Amino acid sequence: MQLKYLPLQLTVKNMATTQHLVILMLTTTLLLVNSEPQVPCYFIFGDSLMDNGNNNRLHTQAKVNFPPYGIDFPDGPTGRFTNGRNAADVIAQLLGFDKFIPPFATAKGSEMLTGVNYASGAAGIRAETSEHIGARISMDNQIKNHWVTILRLSYLIGKGSIVETKKYLQKCIYTVGIGNNDYINNYFLPKYYNTSSVYTPEQYAEALVEQHSRQLQDLYKSGARMFGIFAAGYSGCTPGMMAEFGMNSCVEEVNSAVKLFNSRLNTALNYLNNRLVDAKFIFLESSLEYPNDINVTDTPCCGGSSTSSKGQCVPNQVPCSNRQNYYFWDAFHPTERINVIAGTKAYEKLTSFDAFATIGLSKDNVTGYISDA
């Protein structure tokens, strides 16, 4: 899928530093001056915030291959849980790829050399997470799918040599964004899951991070070395969770539990950085900050109640017209505008990988990237 975007200009206020980041022309002009991507490949793991079509063929309620999803995407509905691009798409553009990273469900042949997206809507760190919704690809199964990709790549790269393929993968960027559903569709859903009666919030965060650390080490064993790990989002502030709890403001009980997970995850990544040779794990923090002109933060641009539509847009529904002013697209997922901000901030941190310095590339090599105003 070629990148076919019109210029997009946003002014973003970073409340923590009072800086303004001007995101200019997130288009094909974001490719490197020499038209080569900054890294040879980009692999994506996660949930619906990153899914770009892997759930389309699954028997699940967690799929969005229908309008109005994709209303601002050139090819229409693709399975992305938003109106346009997700954060992984934005990162791929900023890295200089001339096509979006393909979903594992349809990836084939040489296109896999530039990476694969394994993310699945409703997926969790724990295998049982979201099972009441239907089929989904858990983090463990996403890793299994990655091994399938490695086997396929071995015949493209090293005549069947896994060793040579792993050397290639060491040059790639890996991002992982998962854990949201382990709270939304597990811990805080006692109707279907008993985790909240088995674990205290502290114990649950510890158990999740312990399991996720093993998963990240499995990726390391497969050849991955450069990791960007997204923190779990503050799901207590989503319209869906506020509706579930009958509140008109953020659900602090949920956000407090998520903070425990994020804190322990950050500590675990520091441990892995010290323990795993040549690995670098970058923690990509979640933020509740947003531009001042995004003035609708508690109502989705489209969708019904969390109970009648599972928090998703109703098929063929007419969404809001002023999407640039909305934080949430549906009851759980952000608009493309928020994804652009999140993806850009993540890319800023990813450029600290040694690989960028090694090949003489940095954010300064990207046309129309970011300037401080």
Automatic annotation (TrEMBL):
Keyword Lipid metabolism: yes
Name of a matching Pfam family: Lipase_GDSL
InterPro entries associated with the record: GDSL, GDSL_esterase/lipase, SGNH_hydro_sf, SGNH_plant_lipase-like
Domain of life: Eukaryota
GO BP, one annotated term: lipid catabolic process
Gene Ontology cellular component annotations, sorted alphabetically: extracellular region
Signal peptide range: none
Matches recorded under CDD domains: SGNH_plant_lipase_like
Compartment(s) where it occurs, according to its Swiss-Prot or TrEMBL record: Secreted
Keyword vocabulary terms for this entry: Hydrolase, Lipid degradation, Lipid metabolism, Secreted, Signal
GO molecular function: hydrolase activity, acting on ester bonds
Similarity-based family: Belongs to the 'GDSL' lipolytic enzyme family.
PANTHER family with a match to the protein in the record: GDSL-LIKE LIPASE/ACYLHYDROLASE-RELATED, TRIACYLGLYCEROL LIPASE
Name of the protein in question: Uncharacterized protein
Native species: Ambrosia artemisiifolia (Common ragweed)
